[in-house]
UniProtKB/TrEMBL annotation:
Protein name: Zinc metallopeptidase
Keyword Transmembrane part of the UniProt annotation: yes
Taxonomic lineage from the root: Bacteria, Pseudomonadati, Verrucomicrobiota, Opitutia, Puniceicoccales
This protein's UniProt keywords: Membrane, Transmembrane, Transmembrane helix
Transmembrane parts of this sequence: 6-23, 130-157, 201-221
PANTHER family documented for this protein: MEMBRANE PROTEASE YUGP-RELATED
Transmembrane helix in keyword set: yes
The organism's place on the tree of life at top rank: Bacteria
C-alpha cells in the first residue's frame, strides 16, 4: 500500500470531520448568540458568579479581542473572554463564560486531568514548533529521519489532545450545572447552553482524531 492510500483512508476523513465540527460549533454559536437570557446577566457576571459560588475570588476576568478566543490561564489565574461573550447576555455567551469558569474550578479543586494537561504544555509547545519541519521535510521530501521525528511529535500531540478531552467535557458539565443551580438560566434555557457546549466539544474530539490519524499515518510510512 502506498502513502496516497494511507493518506486517503486516514487523513482525508479527519479533515472532513474537522470541517464538520467547526461548522457545527459556528452554527450553534450563531444560533444561540442571538437568543438573550431572560435574566440579562452578562458573560463576565456569570463567570464571576460561578467562580464565587466555588469560593474563587483571586481569578481576574478580562476582555480580549477576537471571536471565540475565550480561555482560562491557570498559570496566571486569568479568565479571558472575547468581547461578545464578556459583554453579551446570550445563552451562547453564558455557556462559554461558565465553561471557562469551570476550568477555574478544576484548577481550585486540583482536577487531575487539568494538572496533567498543564504539565504537558511545555513539551507540547516544543513539539508543535517542530511541526513545520516535519510537514515540509517528511511529506514533501520523504526524509526518513523527519518521518521518525514526526512520529514523536504526533505522539506528544496525541497524548495532549487525549488528556484535553476529559478536561473540556468536565468544564462543560460544571458550566451547565452551575448556571442552572445558581438560577442564571431557567429550565427551558438549558437547551441553548447545552447545544453550544456540545458543539464546541466536537472540535476537541476532531482535534484528537486528527492527531491520532497523523500519528498512525507516519507510523505506517516509517515502517515501509
Amino acid at each position: 500500500m502506498n502513502s496516497l492510500y494511507y493518506f486517503a483512508i486516514l487523513i482525508v476523513p479527519t479533515i472532513i470531520l474537522g470541517i464538520w465540527a467547526q461548522n457545527r460549533v459556528s452554527s450553534a454559536y450563531k444560533k444561540w448568540s442571538q437568543v438573550s437570557s431572560r435574566g440579562g446577566i452578562r458573560g463576565y457576571e456569570a463567570a464571576d458568579a460561578v467562580m464565587r459560588s466555588a469560593g474563587i475570588t483571586d481569578v481576574q476576568i478580562v476582555e480580549i479581542p477576537g471571536h471565540l478566543t475565550d480561555h482560562y490561564d491557570p498559570m496566571h489565574k486569568r479568565l479571558a473572554l472575547s468581547s461578545e461573550n464578556y459583554r453579551g447576555s446570550s445563552l451562547a455567551a453564558l455557556g462559554v463564560a461558565a465553561h471557562e469558569a469551570g476550568h477555574a474550578i478544576q484548577h481550585k479543586v486540583g482536577y487531575k486531568a487539568l494538572q496533567l494537561r498543564m504539565s504537558l504544555i511545555p513539551i507540547t509547545n516544543f513539539a508543535s514548533s517542530l511541526l513545520p519541519f516535519v510537514i515540509i521535510g517528511g511529506f514533501f521530501f520523504g526524509m526518513f529521519g523527519l518521518i521518525k521525528l514526526g512520529v514523536l511529535v504526533y505522539l506528544v500531540l496525541t497524548i495532549f489532545q487525549l488528556v484535553t478531552l476529559p478536561v473540556e467535557f468536565d468544564a462543560s458539565r460544571r458550566a451547565k450545572l452551575q448556571l442552572a443551580g445558581l438560577g442564571i438560566i431557567s429550565e427551558d434555557e438549558k437547551k441553548g447552553v447545552a447545544e453550544t457546549l456540545t458543539a464546541a466539544g466536537w472540535t476537541y474530539v476532531a482535534a484528537f482524531v486528527s492527531t491520532l490519524a497523523n500519528l498512525v499515518y507516519l507510523l505506517l510510512l516509517s515502517r515501509r
